[in-house]
Design a protein that fits this description.
alpha+beta; 7 strands; binds zinc ion; 30% helix; 189 residues
Length: 189
């Protein structure tokens, strides 16, 4: 079976967004090249929702909400743990003008933008939100990933010093009958 090239989920038609008001998509974690080296496994998807802000059509303001669960190496037990990410941010969609005017046009727009607002350039009526989403995910990753619940680490074989001691004591109390015979000088025949 010949597989069709996958539609690029991160390319959004500005016309479609203006008509629908909301666009929901998913993109593959494996397609985020700057993010994947930081993950322990590159499986799963990033769900996102782009919404044109009501009453903000003039300023072309949109919000992008992202939701995903990424797999990172737990720094306690060194197995994979899920890091849930749920964030939203605003972006201003800038229609591409001639290159001479584009810069001053963007500058003018930026003066009136809310703080922390990203900028997406439209090219041929399409916007690429891949980089914005990836930037947001990179900012969301914890410096040190850990299983939320230490029980999960224990289940993966992780032992705290106190626990390791407890396990040793437990092993001692379950005395091997043959070693008891040996200690009494009686060898098995
Ligand atoms: Zn862990």
């Amino acid at each position: 079976m010949v597989s069709k090239p996958r539609q690029q989920a991160w390319i959004i038609s500005w016309r479609e967004l203006r008509a629908e008001g909301v666009i929901r998509r998913s993109l593959l974690v494996a397609d985020l090249e700057r993010l994947t080296p930081l993950l322990s496994e590159t499986i799963g998807e990033v769900d996102f929702k782009a919404t044109l802000l009501t009453g903000e059509a003039k300023r072309n303001l949109i919000t992008i909400e992202i939701k995903t669960a990424l797999l990172m190496e737990c720094q306690r037990c060194l197995t994979s743990c899920y890091v849930n990410v749920e964030r939203s941010f605003q972006a201003c969609v800038v229609e591409h003008e001639s290159t001479e005017n584009a810069e001053s046009h963007v500058e003018r727009l930026l003066e009136h933008l809310p703080e922390d607002c990203e900028v997406v350039l439209l090219e041929d009526g399409l916007m690429n939100v891949n980089h914005l989403i990836e930037d947001e995910l990179l900012l969301s990753l914890p410096l040190v990933a850990r299983h939320e619940n230490q029980q999960d680490c224990l289940a993966q074989g992780y032992r705290t010093t106190a626990l390791a001691e407890a396990v040793k004591v437990d092993e001692k109390t379950h005395v091997n009958p043959f070693s008891m015979l040996k200690s009494r000088g009686i060898e098995e025949k």
